[in-house]
Amino acid sequence: LPDEQKTPMDRDDAFSWIRWMKSSPTPMIVDVSKTFQSIINATVITDQSMERIDQTREQFLARLRCRLVLLPSGASLKGPLLEPSSSLICGKLLYGGITRYRLIGSHNSNRSPRKAGERTDIMVSSKDNLPTWIQYGGPERMYEAVDMGPCAALEVLLMAPGQGIVPEKSPQMQEMMIENLAWRPERMFGQYMSENGDG
After folding, report:
1. Which residues lie across from 40 on neighbouring strands?
2. CA dihedral defined by 13, 20, 151, 30, rounded to 10 degrees?
3. Of 10, 28, 44, 145, which is most buried, counting CB atoms within 10 Å of its CB?
């Protein structure tokens, strides 16, 4: 949240959860989809926008997922992430350094998979505001923390209409998955308004 909107309780709660996130001893994925869907439903979706895409609110919200990827220093996901080929994944580094890449030929070949599209983002200070990255479903995806301390990335996933969500049930998913934590992500994340007033 912007500093002017934070209360002392918001700051204390955020600091406590950030300490918990940074102390994770193993790769972990925290699913915050329910909170994210609630925020989107209350602040972004309008009846007019739903008419344009010919979907109900429930149908559109069912296509959205949001998760935190937490990695200890130098660690990588134990297994790749896999989404349907027409899905869209937006990622944002929250702290630390992270390398992302796709695995080509890993699930339909006897050969060892090769890396493709490798990119590394590093936050030197908390004031850094690195650009959001976009990835597409289909190929298996991997994350690896730079060996400089723990890192966290926020992912927002949008699936095509009629497609199911596969990451949480995929056999490739080997990370610890946590849901329904007794926390309020909205105390750490908020909706920023652009100069023209759009979210």
Report:
1. none
2. -90
3. 145
Phi, psi of 93 (to 5 degrees): -75, 130
For 84, phi then psi, to 5°, come to -60, 155
3-state SS of the chain: helix, strand, coil percent to 5? 20, 30, 45
C-alpha span between 116 and 139 (Å, rounded): 10
Question: How far apart are the C-alpha atoms of 147 and 152, rounded to whole Å?
Answer: 13
Are 35 and 67 within 8 A, CB to CB? Answer: no
**Is the dihedral angle over the CA atoms 80, 84, 89, 115 positive or is it negative?**
positive
Show the tokens assigned to 158: 């949008």
d(C-alpha 157, C-alpha 159), whole Å: 6
Residue 184: partners with Cβ closer than 8 Å, 6 or more residues away = 13, 35
140, 80 Cβ separation under 8 angstroms: yes
**Model pLDDT for residues 34-79, shown as the tens digit of each residue:** 888 888 888 888 888 888 888 889 999 999 999 999 999 999 998 8
Three-state DSSP class for residue 141: strand
Kind of pairing between the strands at 176-178 and 28-31: parallel
